Amino acid sequence: MTTVRVTVTCSPAHREVLERHLEMPAGCTVRDAVAASGLAAAATLPDPGQASVGIWGRRCGWDQPLREGDRVEIYRGLAVDPKVARRERFRGQGARATGLFARKRPGAKPGY
């Protein structure tokens, strides 16, 4: 029986990464690897079937077959919408300290 080596990772919290290296039978799917790793329970995901998954940073489906050396990633939901976070950072910095040309060198031409 042929096996494939895969890695299953997830980040349940900021700056925390859980990783499991597995040997799975050839033809296994992402769902099989996540179930065998036990990370869905360890990461306290609300509903593992609803979480997004990917292989090497590219989203895929739960029924995607795995190949030798694949890295399966379980993605958690965003805590804050990125657009809202950017607006809040901008509001906190103020208009003068923002933008591409905020830090000018002394004696530089305008716009540089």
Automatic annotation (TrEMBL):
It holds the Pfam family Ub-RnfH. It comes from the Bacteria. HAMAP family: UPF0125_RnfH. Belongs to the UPF0125 (RnfH) family. This is UPF0125 protein FN976_07480. It comes from Caenimonas sedimenti.
